Amino acid sequence: MLDSVGESAKPLACARDVRHRSRVKLALGSVLALGVLLRLTGLEVHSFWYDEGCTLSIVRAPDLLAALSVDRHPPLSFLAFRGWSSLFGFGDAALRVLPALLSSCALLAFAALARLWLEPREALASAALYAFSPFLVWHAQEARMYAFLELGVVLALFGAASAVRGRRWGIVVAGIGVFLAFGSHYMGAFAAANLVALASAGRARGRMEARQAWALVVSGCMGIALWTPWLIAMLPAQLAAPWGWLARLSPRELIEFPLRQVLVEMDVVPRAFEPLGYALGALMLFGFGAHLVRVFRRQSPGDQDIVLCFGIPLLCAFAGIGLGQFFMQTKYLMAGAPATTCMIASGLAGLPRVSLRRIALVLVLLGSLGVTLLHKTANHREDYRSSCLDVLDSWRAGDRIVTITATPESFAQGPLRHYLRERPDVLAGLIDSAALFPDPRTDLAPGTRLHVVYRDTPYASSQLEALRASLSLVEANPMRFRIQHLLFVRE
Questions:
Q1: Which of the residues 159, 241, 257, 284 could staple to 174 if both were Cys, CB 3.0 to 4.6 A apart?
Q2: Mean pLDDT across the stretch 171-184?
Q3: Tens of pLDDT along 418-452?
Q4: Residues 67-99: pLDDT tens digits?
Q5: Distance between CA atoms of residues 227 and 121, nearest Å
Q6: 367: alpha, beta or left, given left = phi > 0 and alpha = psi -120 to 50?
Q7: Are 50 and 404 in contact (CB under 8 A)?
Q8: Dihedral Cα 108, 94, 178, 138, nearest 10 deg
Q9: Distances from the Cα of 232 to the Cαs of 15, 107, 109, 360, in angstroms?
Q10: How many CB atoms lie within 10 A of CB 38?
């Protein structure tokens, strides 16, 4: 009789298991669909900012190689934007939909990667956080190379994780990912460093044969080596190109690094809700720490691989900074973002008490989704679009226009040439800022009105002060996210 009861319980347990898997698949499908929707909507909310203007300057340059020689990035994303714009034009949404699509592909690949690294519940939580991540959605909607870098990194990690589990095709996928990552951003090389770490760990655990481990390492190295002709021909000129200022991570940014790979532009949170923003950050740090603790307690290969893929890019960056070779922002270390997301989400999803982990995950996911949605309510990038409208509203025949950024002129003019592209009469009045200094009056006839689009930075303020001292200020529009339109006249 007991046997018959046991036999009758098996179909029930099997049915429950099938229902559970169906619910997980439905939840995962819903999360991925929402993540793709977040990336593909609101593409025109934000103005193109300075860096996107640099992309436009290079993409529209008659000589692409000459334009890239004064930039500091590999060519892959610019070639892609050049081809894309020839088909779909230069509208804000038309250009941004390309990185949005690439980031959507990265999201799907990440969901597969998380299933290799983590248990189903933790993988689902990680996929949800990746889908809603303000950091990833923000850069998915930017006409720059970071979505290309993101896709390359995720493909490299997915290929490596598959290769460790005996799937030989993963070695090829990993190499393709490194090729894409490094061809988009020089710090995509950190993806190759992750492959070396994963191959070494897989070999040490006995999960990979020596031949397979070496094949994975060689695949990553080949992803970089294929760019050797470019490096020989162009990298010396790029390194010699003068730039007045390049970013470095501050001590505070280093401390907040795990948060900054999920949260970005938190000034969108209304002041009354700022405590909730701090609570969200604290909860994420708690999840990050919980994962670190679990690594030592559970000794799971997947957990260990995640920590490796977080730590290796950071260590490489510290080494580069110590040698004086790297300038750093959080987005440059996209190679660590998938692991950071997994650490936060899986740390919370692995909490021992069911009620605690459910509350923590709901708060983190809703908070991340809320910040991402707030990004879509109004412009939160350097507002060249509004300043160019200010120029058009007060433009008169014979006026001149200049942009003050204290950076290479071809890049500085990029956003202006984009938003004034349908007004050739205005663009005909565009002059180089170098022509105005040291004496702004030398190149302007008496009575000439000068429109200035100023980017508020410490290294450009002296040029603006020189204009104020030499010309009469007629009009000053409000500063909008570091961009201001001012109108001067030469007395």
A1: 159
A2: 97
A3: 999 999 999 999 999 888 887 877 778 889 999 99
A4: 999 888 999 999 999 999 999 999 999 999 999
A5: 40
A6: alpha
A7: no
A8: -70
A9: 61, 34, 32, 50
A10: 26
> Order of strands, edge to edge, in the sheet holding 449-455?
400-404, 449-455, 483-489, 472-476
The pLDDT value recorded for residue 2 is 43
Burial 174-186 (b: 16+ CB within 10 A, else e): bbbbbbbbbbbbb
DSSP bridge partners of 476:
486
Tracing tokens 């390359």 back to the chain, one arrives at: 152
The model's pTM is 0.92
Compute the distance between CA of residue 25 and CA of residue 31 in angstroms, rounded to an integer: 10
**Reduced 3-state DSSP string for 245-266:** CCCCCCHHHHHCHHHHCCCCCH
Determine which helix (DSSP H) or strand (DSSP E) holds 40, and give its type and residue range: helix 2-40
CA atoms within 13 A on the CB side of 32: 19
| Amino acid, res. 229 | P
Using DSSP bridges, classify how beta strands 449-455 and 400-404 pair: parallel, antiparallel or unpaired. parallel
**Contact of 343 with 287, CB cutoff 8 Å:** yes
Strands 472-476 and 483-489, by their bridges, are: antiparallel
Token pair, residue 491, equals 């007395």
Pick the closest to residue 44 from 142, 139, 144, 150 (CA basis): 142
Which tokens is 226 given?
């294929």
How open is the CA angle 438-404-437, to the nearest 5 degrees? 10
Cβ neighbours of residue 337 under 8 Å, at least 6 residues apart? 135, 136, 150, 153, 261
- Number of residues written out for the chain: 491
Find the angle CA(285)-CA(286)-CA(287) to the nearest 5 degrees: 90
> Three-state SS for 293?
helix
Quick: pLDDT tens for 215-226.
Answer: 999 999 999 999
Angle at 143 between CA 126 and CA 127, to 5 degrees: 10
Write down the domain spans for the chain. Answer: 26-375, 384-489
